[in-house]
TrEMBL record, chains A, B:
GO terms for molecular function: sequence-specific DNA binding. Residues 5-66 form the HTH asnC-type domain. Keywords: DNA-binding, Transcription, Transcription regulation. It comes from the Bacteria. The keyword Amino-acid biosynthesis does not apply. It holds the Pfam family AsnC_trans_reg. This is Lrp/AsnC family transcriptional regulator. One of its GO terms (biological process) is response to amino acid. GO terms for cellular component: cytosol. Transmembrane segments: none annotated. InterPro entries: ArsR-like_HTH, AsnC-type_HTH_dom, Dimeric_a/b-barrel, Tscrpt_reg_AsnC-like, Tscrpt_reg_AsnC/Lrp_C, Tscrpt_reg_HTH_AsnC-type_CS, WH-like_DNA-bd_sf, WH_DNA-bd_sf. The lineage of its organism: Bacteria, Pseudomonadati, Pseudomonadota, Alphaproteobacteria, Hyphomicrobiales.
Amino acid sequence: MSRPLDHLDIKILRLLQENATHSVADIASKVGLSSTPCWKRIQRLQMDGVITGRVALVDQEKIGLGLSVFVFIEAGEQTKEWQASFATTLRGMPEVVEVYRLAGDYDYVLRVVVADMKSFDRFYRRLIKTTELKNVTSRFAMEKIKAITALPVVPPPPQATP
Amino acid sequence: MSRPLDHLDIKILRLLQENATHSVADIASKVGLSSTPCWKRIQRLQMDGVITGRVALVDQEKIGLGLSVFVFIEAGEQTKEWQASFATTLRGMPEVVEVYRLAGDYDYVLRVVVADMKSFDRFYRRLIKTTELKNVTSRFAMEKIKAITALPVVPPPPQATP
DNA sequence: GTTGAAAGAAACCGATC
DNA sequence: GATCGGTTTCTTTCAAC
C-alpha cells in the first residue's frame, strides 16, 4: 500500500461502492473536489489495487436461482496439499460463490447458489464425490435479510508515534 | 419478469458480472451482436431489475479490514415483530455485510467485516446490547478462499407444455 | 489543489433496411 | 435482428494558474 487513505479517498470509495455508474464529475462535486484531482485519485485507487474491479450485480431470484445454501465442512485431512486441492476444486465450481476457511469446529463455510433443492442435491453429490470430506452439514437460507458489497470504509486508527 | 432470458442475455450477464467497464460495443462483439440491439438488451435487463446495479469492489485487506467473522444466532423470540426489528437493526450496521435467516439449529448467519479482534468485540457488545438473543456463536475466518459476486447464470429448465 | 479546453470514445436514440 | 447517423455526455489528458 503506497499511501494511507485520506478522508477524500474514503468518500470516493463509499460512493463508488454504492454506485459505480456516476461520472467522475459527479463524484468530484459530491466529495468537494474538482474533476481532475478526483479522476487522479480514482486512477490511483485502481492502480494500488484498492479498487479491484467494477461489476454488475444481478438479482438472484430473477435469474431463477432461488436457493442459497450454507455448507459447513470438516476437512478430510489437515494437510497443505489437501487444502490446496480442495480450494482448487471449489474455485472451479461456479455455484460456489463464497468459501472461507474457519477457526473452530468447522473448517470451511461455503455459500452455494442454486435453482432449487434438486440442483443442490446434484451439486452436493458432485462435491462429496470429488473430495474426501469428514463431515458436511448443509443449512438452507430461508430469507436473505441483507447482502451488500460495500465494505465499511473507515479511517485507520491513529498510529502511535514512538 | 417480463421475458425469460435467452442465450444472448445470459452471455451479456456473464460478461457484465465479471467486468462492468466494457463498452457496449465490446460486449456486443463478444456475444455476436451489433451495438444497438445489445444496448437495448442491457437497458431492458436494467429496467426489469435483473441487473440491480453496478458497483466498485474494494480490497478488504487494503482498507484495513483484516477480519471476517461469521456469527451464528439463535433468535430471542420466534415472532414476526422480533424478526422485523432484528432485521432493521442489522441493516443499520455497516460492518454486517450479509445476513441470512436459516433453517436448522441456528436462526441466522451474519458475516461481519471488521479491522481486528478489538473492533469485533466492540461490534459484538453493541449487537447483544441492542437485541435479546438466545445464543450467539462467532466463528472467525482464517482465510478467504473464494468470494465472487458473479452468480452462475444458467438457462431455465425447459417448461413442461401440458 | 484549481479552472478551462479539447480530442476521442462512448452512450444514447431515432430512422432505415 | 443490422447498419447508419447524429447528438450528447463522459473520459482522459494537457495546459496554465
